[in-house]
Amino acid sequence: MNSIERRDFLKGTATGVVAFTVGGVEVILSAREAHAQNVPFRLLKANEAETIEALGETLVPGARAAGVAHFIDQQLSAPPEEALLEARILNVRPPYVHFYRSAIAAVDNASQAINSGRNFAQLSSSEQHDFVDAMRQNKVQGWQGPGGSFVYLLLRSDAVDAVYGTMEGYEALGIPYMPHIAPDKRW
Amino acid sequence: MATNEKVDVVVVGAGASGSVYAAVMAKQGKKVVVLEQGPDWQLSDLISSDIWGRRVKPAGGPFILEGKHPVSYGYQAGWGVGGAALHYFANFPRLLPNDFRIKSEHNRAHDWPISYEDVAPYYDKVARDIGVSGDAKAEEIWRPAGEPYPMPPMKTFRNGQVWLKGFEAVGIRMAPAAVGMNSTEYKGRPACIYDGWCHVGCPIGALANPLVTYLAEARKSGAEVRP
């Protein structure tokens, strides 16, 4: 990308619009809208998205409907310097999709080992809660992958972003947003 | 393509330090070029959003963190024109006089070869340059008397009053924090409106970031920033 194209791209992201691909055409949607319309994922496989949604929902109720998997998928498909994920701030080595795939594999492999071959998304709500509780303390038996507490931190942050990181999220919390420059209403 | 262009000064990095060098040298008539690896951020890029605000945080390879207790650095660091000072809370505490005499007073580390009195005029100069709000008189509980800050301290809100009451109850004296934010209009920049988006950058210029202070002066004096 040359410098002029790069500046144009940055200006595009500055408006807060987020592009998803629907039927081969890029459309501007919020993550919540992308989830509701079942927009195909760009990078995540169906089982990976399912695990992320189940994890997100366990960590922050409402994350599935808020489109946490679409939010993460859309950000993972952007160049690392354009990504808005907390992974960027928490010193994860790009491309960030490698971390997410390792984390998802760690969660599901451990879940299968502990729960008679069931992935995390197939567990009951209370089983998911117990698994996450052990994960945040690095106490999941047979865990192999990025540190459980770090996976907890990162996925929780993503889920918080999806549910509460928007102007609507602030409103739900009863916190006045008071922006200087408001992000695009869709985000 | 290399042009073998000759300049007087090349400054690497357009952040808190580089912008000061650039301003000082450019105002003295030097031909200054500032090199910066990241984007050429503008005030209009500083969107009020915790998510979008991450764009002005570091991108690319991770920092190498070593030691038993590595400290995550990404939240505080920056990239692009303005650097980390594009998105900070602009706290401007001073070293205390006894910070320069650690060896003499505590038999630890080393004494500095300079004293608080040596650097105090420069603290005052920076305060005038960029605009610092505070109460110098109140700070005399821990430092020698000096110039007043160019602006009165920022407002104290309800949560601050709660803390003040608690400290007062246990006999701890407090003074308003000195901050690089405008409590009143200063040098053509507006006063802060207390909306709390300092950490993702202040697009109105009430917070003293390089784009509205030293880097603006450098550019006005002919310095070229090459992102």
Describe the protein's architecture and organization.
The complex is a heterodimer of chains A (187) and B (227). In chain A, strand 1 and strand 2 (25-28) form a beta hairpin. The radius of gyration of chain A is 17 Å and the shape is globular. Chain A is mainly alpha-helical and 187 residues long. Helices cover 53% and strands 4% of the residues of chain A. Chain A has helices at 3-14, 31-36, 46-59, 68-76, 86-89, 96-114, 125-136, 148-164, 167-173, and strands at residues 19-22, 25-28. Chain B has 227 residues and is mostly helical. Chain B has helices at residues 16-27, 102-106, 116-131, 158-169, 214-220, and strands spanning 9-12, 32-35, 224-226. Chain B has a 3-stranded parallel beta sheet with strand order 1-2-3, with helices on one face. The longest helix of chain B is centred in the middle third of the chain and has 16 residues, at 116-131. The interface between A and B is medium-sized, with 32 and 32 residues.
Characteristics:
A: 187 residues; mainly alpha; two-stranded antiparallel sheet; 9 helices; globular; B: 227 residues; 5 helices; 23% helix
Largest sheet of chain A: 2 strands, antiparallel
Terminal residue distance of chain B: 16 Å
Work out the helix count of chain A: 9
Radius of gyration of chain A: 17 Å
What series of H and E elements makes up the topology of chain B? EHEHHHHE
Poorly predicted sequence stretches spanning 5 or more consecutive residues of chain A: 1-17
Major sheet: arrangement of strands of chain B = 1-2-3
Helix content of chain B: 10-25%
The structure class of chain B reads mainly alpha
Oligomer: heterodimer
The total count of strands of chain A amounts to 2
Cα-atom Rg of chain B, whole angstroms? 20 Å
Structural class of chain A: mainly alpha
The chain-level mean pLDDT of chain B equals 93
